[in-house]
Hints:
Elements: E1 3-11, E2 17-26, E3 31-35, H1 42-49, E4 57-62, E5 65-66, H2 75-79, E6 82-86, H3 97-108, H4 112-125, H5 141-153, E7 159-163, H6 171-186, E8 190-194, H7 198-204, E9 207-212, E10 215-221
Parallel strand pairs: 3-8, 3-9, 6-7, 7-8
Antiparallel strand pairs: 1-2, 1-4, 4-5, 9-10
Helix pairs in contact: 3-4, 3-5, 4-5
Amino acid sequence: xxxxxxxxxxxxxxxxxxxxxxxxxxxxxxxxxxxGHSGAGKSTLLRLIALIERPTSGQVIVDGQNTRRxxxxxxxxxxxxxxxxxxxxxxxYDRPVSDNVALPLVxxxxxxxxxxxxxxxxxxxxxxLHKEKxxxxxxxxxxxxxxxxxxxxxxxxxxxxxxxxxxxxxPDLSLEVMRIFRRFNEVGVTLLIASHxxxxxxxxxxxxxxxxxxxxxxxxxxxxxxx
Length: 227
């Protein structure tokens, strides 16, 4: 099991309950979509898995590690097993593409030569090796998102989480991004993707859960139709 949530509640100051007694399991190698309206708890779920936040109650276990037992100083090491992709890219626009992708490796203390090889391999996987020296501002929205994906997978994570990764993209670019995710999944990476794009999710033919006001309301699997 890659992810196990047991009776997880997340309550924010003021009493807002983003997740309410959520129990969920995600197998290793699974590609799972999380749907639900804005405020349903999708982002909160991903933030708990990434240890950006901690649950108010319940347990979040990721690849055998109970996040409650991960001390603050060990959070950076914990996060190295997880690649994170965001809707707004979070790129550094004063640095070239290659430096953006290399950032997690620099933080982890990977040597310059090894980091360079891994950055080029990651960019090649998302079809952007020829743009490694360009500034992100010169790239299209779809290309910027692919830079974000390359940065997320450069550490060779076991788990990749994505929060509305196609929210700013047109349907063709959205499908292109999902095909990239599919290729990573096919080599064993577990993916957890929050998205409101039901038509795109249906095309992917993957497992899906739906959240509503922090509760799990639906879990189903569609027949593959994306090819």
